[in-house]
Design goal:
There is one protein chain. The chain has 263 residues and is α/β, with parallel strands linked by helices. The protein folds into 2 domains: 3-122 and 194-258, Alpha/Beta hydrolase fold, catalytic domain (Rossmann fold), CATH 3.40.50; 126-188, no CATH class. The chain has helices at residues 34-44, 69-82, 94-104, 126-142, 146-156, 161-168, 173-179, 183-190, 197-201, 217-229, 247-258; strands at 3-6, 12-18, 23-27, 49-53, 87-92, 109-115, 207-212, 233-238. Strands 1-2-4-3-5-6-7-8 form an 8-stranded mixed sheet, with helices on both faces. The protein is globular.
Length: 263
């Protein structure tokens, strides 16, 4: 990240800008940094001015305590101000929940898009699973067991136990442990894990909800319900895509929405 700005509480935020056109800030999900969505920014760059940033507690950004979702909304406000005073937003997974909250809060956002926000009320037993995860995650982090926190998150995503243990032995594991404390941030953003219908109903800008056609049905249903809850919204399903969506597939859809003003 080659640029810095400062949030309202003094937290330094690292970001970079790619391309020309309408400005779009890309918000990453759990266990990720701005670098995670950088390939998508490159795919948007021919039609959009794409901004990627390290959310607080990750990469080159600070992490002023105490954490609150409102601080992350203020981070987005600071970024919007730094890049010209108005922007569109895109968020993936729990980053999408942050985007929806930021838009509902009234930030100067013209349009927003989200990809597969994992609202647990559409997964059988999801609310109970979310509550158990929250309790175990907070305990692991409070005891400094960052590796165990990463394991909890990977299990929540459905990764097989063999793959989790293989990941523990990989060179990437140290980096995953380093960003583990930010899992508590994403958990707070998701709240009780349920779709905040009343909050979404207050959104007054166009929203595009996108899901992968090869993702589990509950994730696709969650995306469809986001679209139903937001007054001015549309739903798109990308054939053959999963939660790990390919930038070359998602990029053109977002570029059309943000630059082409299509829904």
């Amino acid at each position: 990240m080659d640029k810095k700005t400062t949030s309202r509480d003094g937290t330094a935020l690292a970001y970079q800008v790619t391309g020309q056109g309408p400005t779009v800030i890309l918000v990453s999900g759990a266990m990720s940094t701005g670098g995670t969505v950088a390939p998508l920014a490159q795919r948007l760059a021919d039609r959009c001015r794409a901004v990627v940033y390290d959310r607080r507690g990750r990469g080159g950004s600070g992490d002023t305590k105490p954490y609150a979702v409102e601080r992350e909304v203020e981070d987005l406000a600071a970024l919007i101000d730094a890049v010209g005073g108005e922007a569109a937003l895109f968020g993936v997974s729990s980053g999408g929940a942050l985007v929806l909250e930021a838009v509902a809060s009234g930030l100067p956002v013209g349009r927003a898009a989200v990809y597969e926000v994992p609202y647990a009320d559409f997964l059988e037993g999801g609310a109970e699973q979310e509550a158990t995860y929250k309790e175990q995650l907070n305990k692991a982090l409070s005891e400094g067991r960052h590796g165990d926190a990463v394991e909890l998150f990977l299990r929540l995503t459905g990764l097989a136990e063999e793959m989790i243990q293989r990941a523990r032995q990989s060179p990437m594991w140290a980096g995953m442990e380093a960003v583990a404390p930010s899992l508590a941030h994403d958990d707070t953003v998701m709240g009780d894990g349920l779709l905040p219908r009343d909050r979404l109903a207050a959104i007054t800008v166009p929203v595009l909800a996108v899901a992968g056609g090869a993702s589990p049905e509950w994730m696709r249903k969650a995306s469809r319900e986001v679209s139903r809850a937001v007054p001015d919204s549309a739903y798109r399903e990308l054939a053959g895509q999963t939660h790990m969506v390919e930038p070359d597939v998602l990029g053109p859809v977002l570029a059309e929405f943000f630059a082409g003003r299509a829904g």
